[in-house]
Amino acid sequence: MSAPRPLRTLEPVAPLPPPVTPIAPRPLPQRSPRSRRPLWIGLAALLALLAGLGLWQRQRATARQDITPYTVVARSGSLPGVVTASGELDAVERVNVSPKRQGQLLELLVQEGERVEKGQPIARMDAGDLSDRLEELRANLLSAKAELARSRGELERNLPLYRQGAISLNDLQRFQADYQVKTMAVAAAQQRIQQRRVEQEELIVRAPFPGVISQRFAEPGAFVTPTTAASATAGATSSSIVELSQGLEAIAKVPESDLGRLRIGLPADVRVDSFPDRRFPARIRQIAPRAVKQNNVTSFEVKLELLNPPPELRIGMTADIDFQTGALPSRTLVPTVAVVTEKGRPGVLLVGKDRKPTFQPVELGVSSGKDTQILSGLSSGTRVFIDLPPWAKERKS
Known about the structure:
Blueprint: H1 33-64, E1 71-73, E2 75-77, E3 82-90, E4 93-97, E5 103-108, E6 115-116, E7 121-125, H2 130-164, H3 169-202, E8 204-206, E9 211-216, E10 223-224, E11 242-246, E12 249-255, H4 256-259, E13 267-272, E14 275-287, E15 292-294, E16 297-306, E17 318-324, E18 331-335, E19 340-342, E20 345-351, E21 357-361, E22 363-367, E23 371-376, E24 383-385
Antiparallel strand pairs: 1-24, 2-18, 3-12, 3-17, 4-11, 5-7, 5-10, 6-9, 7-8, 9-11, 12-16, 13-14, 13-17, 14-16, 15-16, 18-23, 19-20, 20-21, 22-23
Helix pairs in contact: 2-3
């Protein structure tokens, strides 16, 4: 058995140090208003620098924008001596052909598109009882002639008796009066027969002038009435028989701005859609004294005589007419699409600040359709807009 270990002697514990007194925070030094001024000045300078940088970037971006697709350069030149207008072909003279008296159409002797001569039969009307009435009148004429012959015989027998004193003057005058009455009766019967013969002749409807049957209004069996009015419209309800047309002309609608270049007798070329590669010569024969306004567009009707038109041309064909007016003096020219209107004034759009359109009023001259003359307000060599660029779409015209 082992001996017990001796006990360890405990050392005394040292006393705790006294508590530390906290140190008060040191106050920051106060800046005076004069000392804060450089800070605000620096901030303002920084903002100005940023704004200038943004403006410089925008100007640089604008400078890089290509305006070539949206602009053209005004040039100096002469417009070609041609005024172009649209129109159509029409008949020089056109009438509705109808019978002299109303009645039923018995037979139609022509077709649409057929050429006829003056006096050629076009249609035949139903005679009705005209033949019977004519026979009755002829019988009446024979009776009147018989009465006249009897009266003449009595007068011839009694005239010698009067000379011999066998009858009085009153008796002779009675025979003479009867003879005159019978003579007038024969004349009246002959006149009635002549009237019926005229009616019989008028049953044949004839062409009043040479031309082309441009339209048929009636068919056999239809009831038609007299009319000679010009056919302004093609109507199936017309009470006439046919429409007869003579000659062929072109009727053009010329804008007011081009009318001053035209005159009577001026040559022109006519083109129709059916024959686009052919040109048909013509000349102006009439310029309307009054304008026609349609959709706020003022134009004048100009009629042209077609010189020896071929038979292929038809009434109603759409036509384009080129008037040969002769070359014009040299002027500043711009495409017609470059011409705009602002507050009722014509003008063009110049390239302004930041390459944005700027309105420039001008005085317009003659237009060829594609190009327009500028008489004043614009010099050749100046660039003008023909279309608004994307960065100027908000501009109001």
